[in-house]
Amino acid sequence: MAERTRVVIVGAGFGGLWAARALANQNVDVVLIDRNNYHTFFPLLYQVAAAELVPTDIAHPIRSIFRRAHNVTVRMAGMTGLDRAAKIVETDAGPVPYDILVLALGSEPAFFGVEGAEEHAFPLRWMHDAIPLRHHVLTRFEAAQQADGERRASLLRFCVVGGGPTGVEYAGALAELVHGPLLKDFPGVRRDELSIVLLEGADRLLNGMPAKLGAFARDRLEKVGVSVRFGARVERIGPEGVHLADGTFLQSDTVVWTAGIRGDARAETWGLPVARGGRVTVRPDLTLTEDDDVYVVGDLAYLEDGQGRPLPQVAQVAIQQGRRAGRNILAREQGKGAEPFRYRDPGMLAVIGRNAAVAHVFGRAFRGFTAWVLWLAIHVSWLIGFRNRALVLLNWGWNYVFYRRAVRLILPTVEAPSDRDP
Prior knowledge:
By secondary structure, the chain is α/β, with parallel strands linked by helices. Helices cover 32% and strands 24% of the residues.
């Protein structure tokens, strides 16, 4: 009996997970590799950092997802190298041979050469970023009780760099946390001592959405206590705060970096063809330009739309690319031709605190409560597993009715292997 084709998928984010789901219980053998044993629902990661949700609300064990898939093997390992000539993926748990490889390594924060950003700012890209950030924010209030003067002001000023969806969503959630539950928990802290600053280098928020939605986001953020600064180009970040290009210095203990992402930097070291933003160039069928046996999907893949613009690094692109890669692999096994990837854009959404969001979906712009309901329904529908949906709805319902955060616990932090390297 001929051996079945062995498909190795590296990365269990949206792209890798949906590729594996497309291949589950099919006539191929699948090995899914990730450094973690769970899939993270990244669009809600900022809510973990803002003490709205706990990590288990947005994470789901990978093995349980494929419990009924007889042909899928899950390996917890980190990719360390790639030998395309020998068709071997190197991992910290040993080499893994493949016939077909799907790389879904994802992305990492892009610091654009800003001095000190990587060392002193908090990124918000992975679970191991969100948990320390939440811990840090909560402990700033504990420390502020014993401080005064400039030190107290620095502890109670929070700077968010980047006015895209993540920056807007986190700034709004942070404002609700500090102006709501934390003010009640710490009666010695006055409202006028708190400062949340959103720094955006352009002249508007949410550049990927219509201008009126960006304007609505700014108005909403300012209503909940966020100071929005446009044209604020960050020149340097140090342990003491943020230095802007115009000479302004913002003393702050907490700088959160949401200004951009790039493809996994390891791809170039492995000899893969890298385009701008550290993303790997692929053909329309999602294979490497010079290797039919290697597919690249999700944030790591560089593919342009019909107007010459690179596809955005968002969850829906990764999901659709993972599904298309899986289907093309099956078509290949059946002797059929591959289909080019065509992105069906469902729109963009961003929530701005309680009861308010902006959405550009179905070719229309929505804002306020209607957009918030759309955001809620769409995001919950994407969550993996009934338990996660139930927990998220329960926590949101609790916060909505009682204006409380149920997860304001300052737990011990431990050093753990990075979860950014599938």
